Amino acid sequence: MLKQLIYLFRGVCLLLAFSFLPIVAHGESLDSFDAVIHPSEHQIEKDQLYYDLQYQPKESERLTITLTNRTEQPIKLKATFNRAVTNSLGVVEYSGMNEDESNFGPNITDYVKLSDPTIDLAPKESKDIYLDVKMPDKEFEGILAGGLYIEQLSTEKVEGNIKNVFSREIAVLLQNKTDEVKPNLTIAKANALQVNHRNAVNVIVDNEKATYVKNMSVDYQVEKDGKTIAKAKKEKLTMAPSSRMPFLIQMDNTEFSPGTYTVKMTINADDQKWTGSPKFTINQEKANDYNDKDVSIEKESTNPWIWIGIAVIILLLAVVIFMYNRNRHLQKKVDGK
């Protein structure tokens, strides 16, 4: 009972805490600022709104992006240049918010440098920032992918629990050749974890080739002792070149039990197919820890017969104590006579 009260108290505290935290909404909005690229002569397709560039080894160029404040108030922008990564939902992002520690070939951030990390713009003012490109000394296959991420820094007071963050991403792709490179995916490993206080399984999928993998479908099932405990299919996923995807499987209110689990996964993209069956093990201590912290699992109430039994025992003890004291008192009276 005490444990249940602790869970209830913890849940109420979390609910109250989150109700006062600001919700950050990221979005591309031209109401606040514009970010416009100046096309390069190395652009493969001239009408693109991002940089898709072809160079020879050791070539260099300065790329120009014009930022314009569309408001009547001064604004401050923060700019970063980041490697393209694949997040746990199978979406390519350029914001730098998620890290990818894989090391599959050259990293574009070693060859593209940003001129200004912060930009102050007066009302209606425009300024240029630059990306300095210096290609690797040796020719490489495929695509180096990254992106310029620009975010407006807000100084306004948060009203309620919603805070708008206006941002813009501009992809930058570098190539030596435009020859097609076939992807080669590896379903590397799996492990148990928790995400937002819920049990989940993380499956590592590696794209070691410098090419995008588009229109992916992922079929998976999680098994333990030959029994399927989770099964689903996700479609229209994309992986960035030379990236690692931490594919997330939510266990949907399912408790972990100690033992060995197998994730059977099949990935299809265009005319290619990859399969894998990584295993992972959970011990009793870790299973109990995950299950205790999972807020979505309905905790079993204590059997009411246990409480009835405890009440009966307490009542019997009270009767025994009462009878003992009563008999003792009567004995004293008899001895006194």
How does this structure look, described?
By secondary structure, the protein is an alpha+beta fold. It is built from three helices and 20 strands. The strands form five sheets. Strands 1, 3, 5, 9, 11 and 12 form a six-stranded mixed β-sheet that branches. The longest helix is centred in the last third of the chain and has 33 residues, at 304-336. The chain is elongated, with a radius of gyration of 31 Å.
Count of helical regions: 3
What's the β-strand tally? 20
State the major sheet.
Answer: 6 strands, mixed
Helical coverage, percent range: 10-25%
Gyration radius, to the nearest Å?
Answer: 31 Å
| Low-pLDDT segments, ≥5 res | 1-30
> How much strand?
35-45%
Distance between the termini: 52 Å
Name the average pLDDT: 86
> How does the overall form come out from the CA principal axes?
elongated
Concise description?
With 337 residues, the chain is of the alpha+beta class. Helices cover 18% and strands 45% of the residues.
